[in-house]
Amino acid sequence: MNIIKKFSLGLLITLFLSISAHADKIRIGTEGAYPPWNSKDASGKLIGFEVELAWTLCRYIGKQCEIVEQDWDGMIPALLMRKFDAIMAGMSITAERQKTITFSQGYADEVAQLAVMKGSSLEGMDTPSGINLSLGGSDVKSALKTLTAALSGKTVCVQTATIHQNFLDSGDVGSVNVRTYKTQDEVNLDLASGRCDAALAAAVAFTDYAEKSGKPVVLVGPTFSGGAFGNGVGVGLRKGGDGEVGTRDAQLLKDFNKAIDQARKNGDISRIAIKWFGFDASM
């Protein structure tokens, strides 16, 4: 009987320590297929701007960090099912996503742009250099009108369930033939092979692909921000609620916001962005 009691007590202690350790660890979901934001090296190790930034933020928070790979189209459902505690996957802060989850303050800007292959009839498109959809005005209207005419009858490739697909589906640039893909890598490959007349994604995703592949990918048209493209990229989190679990989620939001402030003040976000993007994309 004493042996059974001792065994049971030991098991309870082990379970308690295991639960405590898990509760003290922040699990962060990322795609691992959206370079240079997040990707994998030849050995399969997760790397990229957000992976390095995640370790930095966890260090400021003072907790252990675990990076979890997750397909993009299942990212928010996996967060809500508690597969991990936070998302750092090039996810822009949009009003639509905020209906389901909450976000930290933004840690980086992500401007979107169209890409074509060199020699495309879409090269040299005459539009303002950058448009913020939230501002409206004559420049935005002019750019959208030009894009509507240029993309008419064209096939534009895009990663599914992204702000880029939402924009193309919105009708702001007319009726476009939108072809969706599970990953950005697939978008890049079909653009290069000629299956797409153009593709839309974060501008740095195309410049990174062009540099690594040697393919003559050319950015065209304006850079996009605001509106459907959101307000920068932030850490996606579950909304805090009642009870111990909800309180922990609410505390994580405070912790990440404080850590982002510290990382920005100390120059960490700028340094990591320049390393991976070649320029300072910090907000």
Rg over alpha carbons: 21 Å
Q: How confident is the prediction overall: mean pLDDT?
A: 91
Total number of β-strand segments? 13
- SSE sequence, one letter per element: HEEEHEHEEEEHEHEHEHEEHH
End-to-end separation = 63 Å
Low-confidence stretches: 14-21
Helices, by number, come to 9
Sheet having the most strands: 6 strands, mixed
**Estimated share of beta-strand residues:** 15-25%
Structural class: alpha/beta
Strand order of the largest sheet: 8-12-7-11-9-10
Helix content: 40-55%
Shape: globular
Task: Summarize the model shown.
The protein has 283 residues and is an alpha/beta fold. Helix content is 41%, strand content 22%.
Description:
- The chain has 283 residues and is α/β, with parallel strands linked by helices.
- 41% of the residues lie in helices and 22% in strands.
- The protein has 9 helices and 13 strands.
- The strands form 3 sheets. A 6-stranded mixed β-sheet has the order 8-12-7-11-9-10, sandwiched between helices. A 5-stranded mixed β-sheet has the order 4-1-5-13-6. A two-stranded antiparallel ribbon has the order 2-3.
- It is globular, with a radius of gyration of 21 Å.
- The model is unreliable at 14-21 (pLDDT under 50).
